[in-house]
Write a sequence for this structure.
């Protein structure tokens, strides 16, 4: 608490009211949890809950599961920002974050992340089940330790291997409803895993200067734009193929198949346009990134409404 009090007095600095300073600090802690990404992670977990139970899950189970997951994801994001505070300060896109801008201290961010991770794990174990708690903690640890601390600064394959972190939420949702995992839960994991490289590399292409400045070995920095765009197309095709698996092995309706085909063809077209555009133009890279943000909620909507026996 004293850390927060210090931050409020620092912010006050004789100007503004205590109320607005407090709101500023609270806003900074919310920003530490990367809330927009958290919303998308929650969408994937909630969709998995619906498919796993063939129905809308109870409000109580939904609130407990998604609250616990949000806590773990927020903890992971805070610990990522704590560890990456040096490079976040160097990159233009991240320089206004709470740590580089000095609104939250490194110690406070670390304690916040650890406390949130511990609380959410215990909360899920006590109110949902042990497997759900374990998977949520594993997702958080994978993001912080495997991706952020180990791979991000070492290899251009950081996103490919580290992409596993963001793919945990459907497993969390599935385990919360059934107490175990099934192949369809792992298929959802695979979909996010294969989606992550084109999602991230599209952004890395038009934010390349940032990564060069921060000396982070992202694929466009190390292997160049053309190689990255080819890899994006390869992962997009693998993603497309993985989304067609339920058409053969899981009871899905024509709605699922149609939506998956539209998404697959659309995302592949974006990847090809990206590959065709000259390196100085980033029009299609930007479209690919924003297309990736549409892909996930629409695909999860498709598997929910297109699963036979749903509702
Ligand atoms: C290791 C895997 C991933 C990496 C490295 C990654 C990286 C990034 C980066 C660098 C941004 C830009 C953030 C910004 O503008 O400050 C971003 C945005 C975003 N990502 Fe990812 N991402 C990953 C996985 C995911 C997953 C699994 C999801 C959800 C399913 C996701 C959802 C989003 C969303 C919704 C945004 C837009 C956020 C905004 O506008 O602030 N990402 N991602
Ligand atoms: C089950 C569970 C709790 C999963 C949570 C895992 C999680 C928070 C995944 C998000 C992945 C992500 C946003 C990476 C950002 O990369 P970056 O850190 O390189 O991006 P940055 O440069 O914007 O910080």
């Amino acid at each position: 608490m004293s850390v927060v009090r210090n931050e409020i007095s620092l912010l006050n600095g004789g100007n503004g009211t205590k109320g607005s300073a407090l709101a500023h600090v609270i806003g900074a802690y919310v920003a530490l949890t990367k809330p927009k990404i958290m919303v998308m992670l929650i969408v994937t977990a909630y969709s998995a809950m619906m498919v796993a139970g063939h129905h809308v899950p109870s409000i109580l189970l939904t609130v407990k599961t998604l609250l616990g997951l949000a806590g773990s994801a927020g903890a992971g994001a805070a610990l990522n920002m704590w560890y990456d505070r040096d490079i976040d300060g160097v990159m233009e896109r991240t320089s206004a974050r709470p740590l580089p801008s000095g609104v939250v201290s490194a110690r406070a961010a670390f304690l916040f992340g650890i406390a949130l991770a511990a609380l959410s794990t215990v909360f899920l174990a006590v109110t949902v089940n042990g497997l759900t708690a374990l998977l949520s903690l594993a997702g958080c640890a994978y993001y912080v330790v495997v991706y952020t601390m180990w791979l991000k600064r070492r290899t251009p394959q950081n996103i490919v291997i580290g992409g596993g972190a963001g793919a945990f939420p459907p497993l969390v949702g599935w385990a919360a409803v059934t107490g175990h995992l099934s192949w369809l839960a792992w298929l959802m994991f695979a979909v996010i895993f294969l989606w992550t490289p084109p999602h991230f590399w599209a952004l890395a292409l038009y934010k390349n200067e940032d990564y060069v400045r921060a000396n982070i070995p992202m694929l466009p920095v190390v292997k160049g734009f053309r190689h990255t765009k080819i890899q994006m197309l390869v992962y997009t095709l693998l993603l497309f193929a993985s989304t067609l698996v339920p058409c053969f092995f899981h009871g899905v309706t024509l709605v699922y198949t149609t939506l998956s085909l539209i998404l697959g063809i659309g995302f592949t077209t974006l990847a090809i346009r990206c590959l065709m555009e000259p390196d100085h133009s980033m029009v299609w890279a930007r479209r690919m990134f924003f297309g990736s943000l549409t892909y996930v909620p629409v695909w999860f909507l498709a598997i929910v409404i297109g699963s036979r026996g749903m509702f």
Summary: The radius of gyration is 20 Å. Residues 59-83 form the longest helix (25 residues). DSSP finds 15 helices and no strands in the chain.
